[in-house]
Every structure is written in structure tokens, then in C-alpha cells.
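Dear colleagues,

I hope this message finds you well. In preparation for our joint manuscript, I am sending the EamA domain-containing protein (Streptomyces longwoodensis) sequence together with its predicted structure, so that both groups work from identical material. I would be grateful if you could confirm receipt.
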Amino acid sequence: MTAFFALATSLLWGLADFGGGLLTRRFPALTVVVLSQGAAAVVLGAIVVATGGWSEAGPRLWCAVAAGLAGPVALLSFYKALALGPMGVVSPLATLSVAVPVAVGLFLGERPGLVQVAGIAVAVAGVALAGGPQLRGAAVQRTAVLLTLVAALGFGTVFVLIAEASTSVTGLFLALCVQRLVSVAVGGAALSMSVRRGTSALPDGGFPWASVPALAFVGLADVAANGTYTVAAQHGPVTVAAVLASLYPVVTALAARGFLRERLRAVQAAGAGLALVGTVMLATG
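The corresponding C-alpha cells are as follows:
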């Protein structure tokens, strides 16, 4: 069950990143974050009301609040790092986020078997290679590296917090709703500050009504991924769940190949293969 839900997480996050990447070619990144997360918050709010999820409110919700604060910071840091580039170095470096939940799992007493340890190493290496790392000729600014490390720490922290935010299905809906509301509030504040500085929040054509379905898909896929990751982490070793969930860059690369006809570099294809080998080792170990 852990492997299934963790792999579902990587699929959903990979598709969400792919959709978000396409949208940020037309709209400011902050606008995409706020609108997509806002759409998810509306849907989650309706589910919470329908299921009576507010009855699950308790101290664990503070984990959801913290995840809501960490998420936008991680996303914005990552986007800024990608802007500074080179992307071929920045993107694989962000996979260090897996170190946070793995470290927490080990601290809590999880001891993966030898095959699983090898699977973790193979999978992480595969994910890094699938990002298409530039192995030479890539001058990296210190700021880009620092921002990427901040993003990785933030993503890994969200992994851990969202897994601790609830113990039941209705509680999970409430936790995800609270996380999204906090994310929208933080992102909205940042967007407001950006507008005050003279940056446009919307394209020249005005509000992107035609893109609402795509924005909603990105937000809901991200929410669903948080949910499946929580289930995976609660029903199996966090170390395994986190590594399998971190395979999403492979999904993003394959989506770009399938929908945009982008050609995979040899190193990316090799990385995808290694990631699949590591997945099998983790699932069977």
C-alpha cells in the first residue's frame, strides 16, 4: 500500500509541476500559485463542510498551518533559483528535499533493509539524473544554490508536516484545507507586495478565465498528492514513502516528452531507468 500511494503521489506532483510550468510561461509564478491553491481551497472547504471535518480540529492542525507557511516559501525560492539558473543544475539539486523525511524516519527508529537502502540510493541518483543535470560549463551563482537549498528544506518539511497533520480521512481533508488557506494567505500577501512594487499580477488580457480549469487541475493535483503521500507515510516506512514520492521529476520529464515532444537527453533517459530500478528495489525490499 505504501508503494502504491507514494507512486501515486509522484504521478500527481509530476503532472501538477508540468501544468504549473506551462502556466508560468503565460502568467507570473505568484499568480499561478495563488489562483491554483485558491481553487483547491474552495473544493476542500466544500468537502470539509459536507463531511463535518471541522469536528476533527485539534492540536495537529498546527502542523497543517506550518506546512501552509513552508510551502509558498519553498515554491518561491525554487522559482527564483530556476530563474537564476542554470536549470540543469538547480532542478536536480532540489531533490535533496527527500533528506528531511528520510532523516526524520531514521530518527524515529525506522531501519530499512539493505535492499531498500540500496534502492533509496539508486532512486535518488536516478531522479537527479532525470532532471538533466549540466555536468560541465554551468556557472552557478551562490544565490541560486542557497535558494535551491532553502526550497529543498521547505519541500522536505512539508512532506513531514502534512504526514503529521491528521490521523483520519476527514481530518486529512481539514488539514489540507487549512494548509491551502494559509498558503493562499501567504501567497496573496506576497503577490500584493509585488503589485505595489509595480509588477503586474495578470496578463495584458486581464483575468485568465480560459485558464481556470488548468489552474484548478494544478491545485487539485497538488492537494491529491499531499493526501496520497499522507496515506503512504502513515501506512509504511516514511523513508520508503518519501523516496518513492520524490520521483515526480521523472513524471514531469516524461509529460514534457509526451505532450510537448521535448526530446529526453541520454542522461535523463538513464536517470528515469535508474529511478524505476530503485522503485522496484524499494517496493520489493
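For the figure legend, we might mention the following. Residues 2-284 form one domain. The mean pLDDT is 81.

With kind regards,
E.M.
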